[in-house]
Amino acid sequence: MSTALDTIFAALADPTRRAILSMLLEDDMAVTDVADPFDMSLAAISKHLGILTRAGLIIQEKRGRVKWCKLDPDAMREASIWMQSFGQFEAVNLDAFEEFLQNELGTTKQS
């Protein structure tokens, strides 16, 4: 498995980051708007955004004084191709995939 793919799956492993990606499906958002629905500090959200950016899943850009986030439309192509190669994962449901891995590996979800 490639390093880029490892980084993408590591970024997708966190439910907060998956929620952020879902929010960005709708439209580009300012960092402060991304942070609003979460019960955590702006610094914590910024760390999550940094991980998503390093994984190539989002792009952050400054527009005036405001930092904006947007999805990279091609970001999950490699991960999607890898998952589709298994055949049983026709529609990618990352929560179900995470649960499957936890069951197979005998791990429990840490909160």
Explain how this protein is built.
The protein is an alpha+beta fold and 111 residues long. It is built from 6 helices and 3 strands; from the N terminus they run ααβααββαα. The protein has a 3-stranded antiparallel β-sheet with strand order 1-3-2. A hairpin with a 2-residue loop joins β2 and β3. The longest helix has 13 residues, at 42-54. The two termini are 27 Å apart.
Question: What order do the helices and strands come in, and which of them pair?
Answer:
Blueprint: H1 3-12, H2 15-26, E1 29-30, H3 31-35, H4 42-54, E2 58-63, E3 66-71, H5 77-84, H6 94-105
Antiparallel strand pairs: 1-3, 2-3
Helix pairs in contact: 1-4
Shape, per Cα inertia axes: globular
CATH superfamily of the largest domain: Winged helix-like DNA-binding domain superfamily/Winged helix DNA-binding domain
Could you tell me the number of beta strands?
Answer: 3
Question: Main sheet: which strands, in order across?
Answer: 1-3-2
Q: Beta-strand percentage? A: 5-15%
Rg over CA atoms, rounded to whole Å, is 15 Å
SS-based structural class?
alpha+beta
CATH architecture of the largest domain: Orthogonal Bundle
**How many angstroms does the end-to-end distance come to?**
27 Å
Helix content: 40-55%
CATH class category of the largest domain: Mainly Alpha
- Count of spatially separate domains: 2
User: How are helices and strands ordered from N to C?
Assistant: HHEHHEEHH
User: Any idea of the CATH topology of the largest domain?
Assistant: Arc Repressor Mutant, subunit A
Largest sheet: 3 strands, antiparallel
